[in-house]
Structures are given as C-alpha cells and as structure tokens.
Design brief:
single chain, 383 residues, alpha+beta, eight-stranded mixed sheet, 40% helix, globular
C-alpha cells in the first residue's frame, strides 16, 4: 500500500515524496454518541488505512490528490485555506492544514497524494483517518513532533470548524492512538486512555464487521440534532455534560426532565446507560470473560435503535439475523443512519452467521453486505 502511495505521488507530481504516513479507520466496540457528552468509548483501530505520501513546497501552495477520486490535484494557496474554501473530500485535509496554522504552528506548503482502503460512508471513520494521516504527514515534514493527543485535537477542530461536522474526539483519538492487539478505553473529557488487551482469537471468538453499504451523511443535520438534544438535557439538569449523570441517578434525572421534549429524555437515557455499558465491558474484559460482552453489545443496539433512534432497517436486519444464527451479541457501530454493525461470535460460527446475514440481505432485496474480521491494529505511524 505504501508503494502504491509513492507510485501515485510520482505519477501526479513528477517527483519522489519525502515520506509516507498511515492512519487507520476504526470500529467502536461500545460507547456510541458518548464522546461529545464527555463520556467513555472503546474503539479499536482496523487494518484498513489511509496513506498520505507527501513532500514540502516553498511557494505557499497546498496541492491534494486522491487516487480514489477522478481528476487532477486540488490546489489552494495557504492564505486562502479557510472554512468554505474547499468542498468534498479535499475539505478534510485542507481543514487540517488550516487547524495547524490557526494553532500558530509553522507549516508551509505541501504536495499530498492520498490512497485508502478504509470504506467510505461505512461508519468506520474514513474522514478521521484522512485527517490524521494528513496531519501526521505535515507534522513530520515540518518537524512539529506533535503528541498523538494534540494531533487528534487539531484534526477534530478541522472536522468541527472547517468541515462543519460537530463530531466528538473519539474517531481522531482512535486513529492516532490505538495500538495493535488492544482496544482503547478513552475518557473523552480529559483524554485519559488505557490500552486494553483484546485477543479474541485466543478465546475462540471473533468480532465481525458487517458493512451494510448503506451510506450515511451525518452532516445533513440528524447527527447535529442528536447532539443538540444531549446539550439541552445537560442544560436542563444544570451540569456540564451528560457524563455527569451517575447511572444510579438516572431515574431521578429523567424525572427532572419531565417537561422537556421526549427526544431529550431519550437521548439522556441512551448516553447515561451507554456509559454504564462501557464500564461493564471493561470489567468483563479485565475479568477474562469476553463472551459476556455479547449481551452488552445487543443492549447497546436496542438503546441506539429505540432511544437514540439512529439505526435503520439494514442495521437492524444484521443484528436480528446474527443473533438468530447464534451470535453472542451484535450492535450498530458508528454514527448511525447506515454504515456498519459489529457481531461478537464463536469462531466456529463465523461462516454460518456471515452466510445468514448475506442471505437475509438478498431476500430483502438489499445490496450484498461486506463482512470482515475486526483485527485490532496499529494507530497512525510513519512508514
């Protein structure tokens, strides 16, 4: 893959890149829509990556090219890199350049060529991987030596303020900080993190990702609407964020929200119970009982479907079919409204469950889903 990035750079720009940098997509085991509520998440990096081959320029110009998008390089003067200056895929790397310069970091022009194996629109954070790969490339080219946490924060700012997507910090932190063979337990308030060993195969288990191939567009307002409901609930309760509602006090908190719209109450219930599900998952993994995590995943899906209301027919079909075929647990993962689901199962049932899901999609007249194993992989790195 890195050689493909180098070759593409040479073909587009007629020169050798100074290096190639990679950042992975991610799948979230548990902890959905909690990150922008200062809560807890548990993502793991996937082997699917974005590669950025890059070289410095001394003329104040940023050029961006993707091997997956037809056409020539997108070109922009650094002084013109500002929100609204670039649309489509180029907004993400352009936004990273803007965020670095807005932070006062000495970043100059660059030529960048992008290749990717992260499925887009699948809820696997292709945009965060693109941001982090670009940010790491620029950081390395200009000797910034940014800590992974700061790089993630800058990439989040690019997505929030430049692209206009009000996402939390999980995706960028997962891409920047995950380690091979581990799931990342992250406190999104202070970025305290713990790498939790996650070797399911040694237990005879697998975690499958099922990409429904239903593309979700989170910036269309639905994601932002859920975030506004969460913020309204926190304001009504007089707390900084929903993370500050203890699970044991949820009934009392919902009682205090009796006059709030039902969508606010539903969102509060999901976030508080989801944080609890992260706590229970950590306890089970620490106790060496990963099989019991399955029922937590399934409960999380019910909450996302019924309270947060971000599932869809295809995601529900994956979950229902996988459970009926013997899976230990399943849930949608990512922002929702399409994308992917995760399925925890015995390794011996992988083929049976995969075939059942594929057959169910065919019977329902849906596109054939993409099914693959979630292998905990390394975070962003130079190649």
């Amino acid at each position: 893959m890195s050689q493909d990035a180098r070759r593409g750079f040479r073909e587009v720009y007629g020169a050798e890149p100074e290096g190639v940098w990679a950042a992975p997509g991610r799948v979230n085991l548990i902890g959905e829509h909690t990150d922008y509520n200062d809560g807890f998440v548990m993502p793991l990096a996937l082997p699917h990556t974005v590669h950025a081959a890059a070289a410095r320029r001394d003329d104040g110009v940023l050029r961006l090219h993707s091997g997956d998008v037809p056409g020539g390089a997108f070109q922009l003067a650094l002084d013109a890199v500002e929100p609204g200056a670039g649309g489509g895929w180029a907004a993400y790397p352009s936004g990273v350049m803007w965020a670095l310069r807005e932070a006062g970091l000495p970043v100059g022009g660059a030529d960048v060529h992008i290749t990717s194996t992260v499925p887009t629109g699948a809820g696997l954070s292709s945009s965060a991987a693109l941001e982090v790969a670009t940010g790491l490339a620029l950081s390395s080219l200009y000797g910034l030596e940014l800590a992974p946490e700061r790089l993630a924060r800058l990439c989040q700012r690019a997505e929030n303020e430049f692209v206009g997507m009000p996402s939390g910090i999980m995706d960028q932190m997962a891409s920047a900080c995950c380690t091979e063979g581990h799931v990342l337990h992250l406190d999104t308030r202070d970025l305290t993190q713990r790498q939790v060993p996650f070797d399911l195969r040694s237990e005879g288990l697998l975690l499958l990702v099922v990409d429904t191939r239903v593309k979700h567009t989170l910036a269309d307002g639905a994601y932002a609407g859920r975030r506004r409901a969460c913020e309204a609930g926190a304001r009504a309760l007089g707390i900084p964020a929903l993370r500050d509602v203890p699970y044991e006090e949820l009934p009392a908190a919902l009682g205090r929200l009796a006059d709030e719209p039902e969508d606010v109450r539903r969102c509060v219930r999901h976030v508080v119970t989801e944080n609890r599900r992260v706590e229970r998952t950590i306890a089970l993994l620490d106790a060496g009982d990963p099989r019991a995590v399955g029922e937590i995943l399934t409960a999380g899906h019910a909450s996302l479907r019924d309270d947060f209301r971000v599932s869809c027919e295809e995601l529900d079909l994956v979950v229902d079919t996988a459970l009926a075929a013997g899976a230990l647990g399943a849930r949608m993962t990512g922002g929702g409204f399409g994308g992917s689901a995760v399925v925890l199962l015995e390794e011996t049932l992988a083929q049976k469950v995969s075939e059942a899901v594929t057959s169910a999609f065919a019977d329902a007249g849906r596109l054939e889903p993409h099914v693959f194993e979630a292998v905990p992989s390394a975070g962003a790195r130079a190649l």
